[in-house]
Amino acid sequence: MNIGQDINKAATLLEGGGLVAIPTETVYGLAANALNEDAVSEIFRVKNRPQFDPLIVHIPHFSALERYAALPPENDLRLLTHFWPGPLTYLSPKKSIIPDLVTSGSPLVAIRVPKQPLTLALLQQLDFPLAAPSANPFGYVSPTTAQHVANQLGDQIPYILDGGAAEVGIESTILGRVNNRLVVYRLGGVSLEEIEDISQEKIAEVRRSSSKPDAPGMLSLHYSPHCKLALLDANQSIADLTIVPDVWLGFGEVPQELPSSTPIFWLSASGDVMEAARNVFKVLRQLDEHNIKRAAVRLLPEIGLGRAVNDRLLRAAAR
Ligand code: TXA
Ligand code: MG
After folding, report:
1. CB 26 less than 6 A from any atom of ligand 1
2. Which helix (H) or strand (E) holds 93?
3. How does pLDDT run across 258-306, given as a tens digit for each residue?
């Protein structure tokens, strides 16, 4: 059985240059020693991920940041000490100890402290940080349970550390500075409101997915299930759909015009954006598991994590 909760086994494999899938509060990661170029190149191979798409480096505590990257400006230190451990990733000039392969040649490295007890204990035990992208084949939906990882990559990973279902359910928010302006590179588990509240600074720019990204995770063709997904915005009705959905993804009230025979897969029955974040990747996978061909969903209100869930739905719908 290659799924379990044995931190020592995970540590031994990682120390030997192997891969281990690790739980985080956002999604499961496919981890390797970030300082070992051969180990890191295995991540790219197993995920079938292009080497131009850089990896996030996971550290056990804020105090380890200085070993791998330049210390951020005062205002950002406040953000990091507030949100770490947690779903915030920060871009900072890298130190030479971080291989270029990890950052795809960029002078910046993406760093975060994950908030998951098993993985934090593992990181504390290791004397190196862990490079870890989401543990899915490149382009597919991110995994939020150990079983999701096992279903797709189980035969290629010696061990999956099982920390249960991810509590946040969508990836970390990626934050950095461009010309001293605060820039969000990817919407994620920390909302824009929370960032502005703690930093007392306006976010100057939010990068959305595009076909020519500067963070390759911003490729709009990402998180794609095989099922075709149609989106409605707040003002549209079922009549505006160009397809007849086999399944409706539910968030709060179900549109009255939806045929009552249409099955509903729930993002959140009570209309809670955090619950929807926790469920969105699981529900997208369920569409494929049930071999659903066409589904439809109304975009969430653009508040809190609603924005990040919408970002994932837009990408899932991109063709
Ligand atoms: O929540 C998360 O962030 C999860 C867990 C496992 O930590 N990780 C994750 O990794 O989502 P991944 O590789 O699936 O997405 C990381 C994103 C990619 O879009 C990548 O382009 C961007 O972060 N990224 C990483 N390093 C970067 C860098 N140096 N500069 C710009 N973007 C970077
Ligand atoms: Mg990913």
Report:
1. yes
2. strand 88-93
3. 999 999 999 999 999 999 999 999 999 999 999 999 999 999 999 999 9
* CATH architecture, range 228-317: 3-Layer(aba) Sandwich (3.40)
* pLDDT given for residue 212 in this prediction: 46
Closest by CA position to 21, among listed 58, 51, 53, 60: 58
- Residue 171 Cβ < 6 Å to ligand 1: yes
For residue 121, what are its two tokens? Answer: 């204990």
- The ligand 1 atom at the shortest distance from the C-alpha of residue 171 is 1
pLDDT, tens digit, 9 for 90 and up, residues 135-155:
999 989 999 999 999 999 999
Instruction: Give the distance (Å) from ligand 2 centre to CA of residue 17.
Output: 21
Q: Where in the chain is the domain with CATH 3.90.870.10?
A: 3-72+90-169
CA of 133 to the centre of ligand 2 (A): 6
Distances (CA, A) of 185 to 103, 188, 268: 15, 10, 26
Ligand 1 geometric centre to CA of 218 (Å): 10
CATH, domain range 3-72+90-169: 3.90.870.10
Percent of the chain at pLDDT exceeding 90: 92
Determine contact, residues 297/232, Cβ cutoff 8 Å. Answer: yes
> Stretch 53-71: mean pLDDT, rounded?
97
pLDDT for 213 beyond 50: no
Query: Which ligand approaches the C-alpha of residue 30 most closely?
Result: 1
- Ligand 1 mutation pick, 47, 48, 52, 56, max ligand atoms within 8 A of CB: 56
Q: Where in the chain is the domain with CATH 3.40.50.11030?
A: 228-317
CB 116 within 8 A of CB 164: no
Whose CA is closest to atom 29 on ligand 1?
109
Beta bridge partners of 250: 266
